[in-house]
Write a structure and sequence with these properties.
The protein has 195 residues and is mostly helical. The protein has one domain. Helices cover 78% and strands 0% of the residues. It contains nine helices and no strands. α2 crosses α7 and α6 runs antiparallel to α7. The longest helix has 31 residues. The radius of gyration is 18 Å and the shape is globular.
């Protein structure tokens, strides 16, 4: 069910980007991304069915989604080199996303499932770093938008429209859910040590 919802959400985000509907929105893309994030977190918080479905999903798909950040980061660097977006945005956003995405692959292969203390620590370090990175990207986007509202023009159509309407909210929500998951799940080493 969760996968179906995510695919429907992606379809709506693509349709919004393809039609240029964001150009008529009174809400700028960075604020829209945060609004969708808060709305999604509220649905998860208030819906037991959503929480149960996410719990059954497990951490693997949530970590796996972060591989998309490698492509997004590389594209940011290309856009910065072409002058489409300012380098003060694309350089930290691009390299941050690439590093977090590559680290997600390592976490997926080495730390999921969490069975030892070092895996838990590595998992948490990656999750904190990834969340701080994406919040920094959004904060930087808001700052640049306030300084120059035309900064968000490239985010009004495809392919960049998918970022505020789909990718950014899911990235932030997945980080929050992963914190909750790792806090709930005692690792195998701790269980053995307590016996």
């Amino acid at each position: 069910m969760i996968r179906l919802i995510v695919f429907v959400w992606l379809g709506v985000a693509v349709a919004v980007g393809a039609t240029g509907a964001l150009r008529y929105s009174p809400v700028p893309p960075p604020v829209l991304a945060m609004g969708l994030t808060v709305a999604t977190l509220l649905v998860v918080r208030l819906s037991r069915g959503a929480r149960d479905a996410i719990s059954r999903l497990g951490p693997g798909p949530l970590v796996l989604f972060h591989l998309v950040r490698i492509a997004a980061g590389a594209y940011f660097l290309v856009l910065g080199s072409r002058g489409v977006l300012p380098r003060e945005f694309t350089t930290p956003a691009g390299w941050g996303d690439i590093l977090v995405g590559i680290a997600a692959l390592w976490v997926l292969l080495r730390c999921v499932p969490v069975r030892s203390s070092w895996q838990r620590i590595a998992f948490l370090v990656w999750n904190v770093a990834g969340l701080l990175d994406i919040l920094g990207v959004v904060g930087n986007a808001v700052r640049l938008y306030v300084r120059n509202p035309s900064f968000v023009d490239p985010f009004m159509s495809l392919p960049l429209a998918i970022l505020p309407t789909f990718v950014v909210p899911i990235v932030i929500v997945s980080h929050v859910l992963l914190f909750a998951w790792v806090r709930r799940k005692p690792d195998a080493t701790s269980r053995v040590e307590r016996r």
